[in-house]
Amino acid sequence: CYMLLSAVAAVAAYPARHMSDKHGARVVYQIGLIAFAISYLLLGITENKLIAVLAICIYGLFPALTDGVGKTWIGAISATNARGYTQGVFQASLNFAVLGAGLWAGALWVRHGIAWPLVISSIGSLIGAIFIAKNFRNRV
Question: Which DSSP string do the residues of 19-76 spell out, in sequence order?
């Protein structure tokens, strides 16, 4: 499954760059968050293996639409003389958030099973996409 996820991410990364140039990094990043939300929701509620494979393919869109695009977006909205600093703060914040979410999700998984952390993460991703839509309309 990880190979499938990586293949989708690799194939989708190139068109994501073009989408970002045409529609803006913010929009593409939001689509990536929505792909995350859909895939985690599907993984959290299904027991069907075919749907799970589809969810993993959709999840492969998440890194393709957010990793490079997010870095580009941060660079575009940063002051020219502080881009390196801003990237560092962005990456550190992102990684601390992932660490915290992973610890929290692991504890929830042990206590309540796999569905809860996946569904809650899906909801959180949708909230993030909505937050970006409401607060970054005039930015790249």
Answer: HHHHH-HHHHHHHHHHHHHHHHHHHHH---HHHHHHHHHHHHHHHHHHHHHHHHHHHH
Model pTM score: 0.90
Q: Report the C-alpha gap between 77 and 74 in whole angstroms.
A: 5
Cα 28 to the center of its chain, rounded Å:
10
The DSSP symbol for 139 reads -
For residue 129 the two structure tokens come to 């996409």
- Residue that the structure tokens 């309309």 belong to: 137
Sign of CA dihedral 79, 85, 89, 94: positive
pLDDT in tens, 20-74: 999 999 999 999 999 999 999 999 999 999 999 999 999 999 999 999 999 989 9
